[in-house]
Amino acid sequence: MLKLLILALILLVMPVLFGIPFNEKSDLTVYRLIPCWCCGWTIMYAVSFFLGVTGILTGMSLDMLTVVWCACMLAVSAFSVFFLLRRREDLAGAFSFPRRYSLTEAAAFLMTAGHAIVTFLMMHVDDDDIAYVAAVTTSVDTNTLMKYDAVTGHLITDYAANDMNRLVSAPLFAFYAVVSKLTGIRPAALCHTFIPPVLTFLFFAAAACAGAELYREDRIKAGLFTCFVILASMFSYVSVYTAGTFLMIRSWQGKAQIAGFILPFLFYLFMRVLRKGKMGLPETVLVFTTLSAACLMSTMGALIAAMTAAVLSAVTAILLRKADVLLKCAACLLVPLASAVLYMKL
Length: 346
Hints:
Order of helices and strands: HHHHHHHHHHHHHHHH
Number of strands: 0
Shape: globular
Strand content: under 5%
Number of helices: 16
Largest sheet: none
Structural class: mainly alpha
Radius of gyration: 19 Å
């Protein structure tokens, strides 16, 4: 029970706390905590990316990375608490829930919950688990970060061998290893059983944010939009390479999280910029953390996210007639660029 409580603290409570300071009253849609939760995930993932890359390149042990990660999470939590004490109305607004929900919203929740149960009870095994489950297990059992090849078990002398360089530039395994270390849950069970249900809700929470922003005054349409996204994903198994296939059956992998979370959340952020008529500091920080989070998941996926952000920023700048949107987004694109350079140089 203690293991699950710690896991719930990391995956559910902390992201909400991290995200509240980056959402003003006008940004809290009818779903209240959902935008905060999604924002918090990007912040937690962004911090994990920078710490993971640093830990690997400096030869840090997993124990040390876990200590540093916890210290950073405490620092972000302290900032969030300090911020909320100064703006109590945001906390009250975030935790106030609407009394009624539409049938379409209820249907979206039930479909999401149904798939979350499926991912908890069943399991999909994929060859790409070498880059995730095997790498996590190797780190946990040896107390190292990318010292041993997850494919052969030998010491790594060349990151390019067996494509291990992609784990350095996109160290999602390091985040899972830290969570496994803190909770005591074995990597295979963590990645295949406990994290997928949470990610299912995260994916469609991002879609709900986009729908609520697109149909801000119409909750029926927002719920219907989310239902459509869920159904489109459910019926996309025409190939093993479709976005819906990735996010529905192997959500713990980085490519799936790019398709299921990062891309729809970028749409939400730039629609939010359009509504507000400017790209303020919260939106700039969130675009930065979202692209940094994409780098944790997948280097190739991070480039797709960067291209998506570039296109969305260009369209937004044209519609608002504000060039600063492009400039602020360009600064955020430096992180995916650095991740790509790191991948090619290793």
